[in-house]
HK97 gp10 family phage protein (Bifidobacterium longum subsp. longum), 121 residues
Amino acid sequence: MVVGQKRFVSTMRRAGADMKELKEVNRQAAGIALPAVQARTPRGKTGKLARTVRAGATQKAGVIRAGRKAVPYAGVINYGWPARHIRGRQFVNEGVAASESAWQQPYKQFIDKTLSQVKGA
């Protein structure tokens, strides 16, 4: 989760931003972060987890998902399970953080475009 994301969405909505366009910006940002996450994803013996990492988006956020029904352990691998003495690898978090400067660019462009359309600014 990005700090200030909820406030950003609210502010853009009040500024008259096209929220359907924001969904596409979120998709672009997630797509930019995806290779960094994939590069950090543990491969294991089968590589099943690595094949489940994908990008998605809503109007509120870009999303990187890992795991599926056949790979239910993705969350445990990323976040850990202290009760079972499993340390989290944080591969999704680290990939998103490492690519932050790149995936911020679509948001900056969206903000600049939206602000240029605000009347009276």
User: Anything to note?
Assistant: Residues 5-115 form one domain. The longest strand covers residues 54-57. The mean pLDDT is 91. Helices lie at 5-14, 19-40, 48-51, 74-79, 91-98, 100-117.
